[in-house]
Amino acid sequence: MQPKNYHVEILYLQNKLDKDMQKIIQPFNIFLTLFLSSIYKVKKNYIKPCAKNSQIIIFLIISSINLVDVCIASFTNKFKTFTLTFIICCSLFLLILSYMLLMICNIYFSNNLILLILKLQEIYDTLDINKEIRIFCIWNWILIFSVILFEVLLAILFQIATKFKISVNLINLHIVNVSYDINMLYAIRVMSLLTMLLERCVTMIQFDIDNEEDSKDKPENVFVTFKKILDAYELYNSCFRILVS
């Protein structure tokens, strides 16, 4: 079934994040911004999409720098064979295309992702999983540093194997690879968080059933939370279906 379109305007003043949710998304926000793939920004405990104009300008600057780098190399006869020239031009095309895809996804899905984060926060506030979240945040940092370290080692091995001279084009190629890997890790960790919340909610429902809970409000609240988790899964699908497909 085709997911609903959640691409709506988000009011800045309604997007306040608590400290726990900020800790969850902090490593991804920092490194995606560092690798020129920021989706949102958090300022004074409020989350909002990054400006579209700034993302387009960054894309144009990066593309221009890469084009100039290739042009300079071609005019100085650094490309000694047609095959090498063809490979460099293809890599440049793929690099610009990759950056363009990242930019389009970041712009188009930014509101959806913010809605998902706010929905996760709303669910988290109704469930007692503080201990699990602390461990979850630690693993976020460990995994993201592992991904970056892996990409650095891969880049070093690539340089050793190919003996290509380091260029702007090559550096940007590694940067875009890291950006895609971090986005993929982001998708995996959000799914892990959703699974954690769902398991906790199911446990609470099962506990109420087993103990024949007399309270009328508690079971109803748990089922409301369960419905919110299902909505969050649908939002997740709308945010990450292109990345993970």
From TrEMBL:
The chain crosses the membrane at residues 24-42, 54-76, 82-109, 138-160. It comes from the Eukaryota. Keywords: Membrane, Transmembrane, Transmembrane helix. This is SFRICE015398.2. It comes from Spodoptera frugiperda (Fall armyworm). The lineage of its organism: Eukaryota, Metazoa, Ecdysozoa, Arthropoda, Hexapoda.
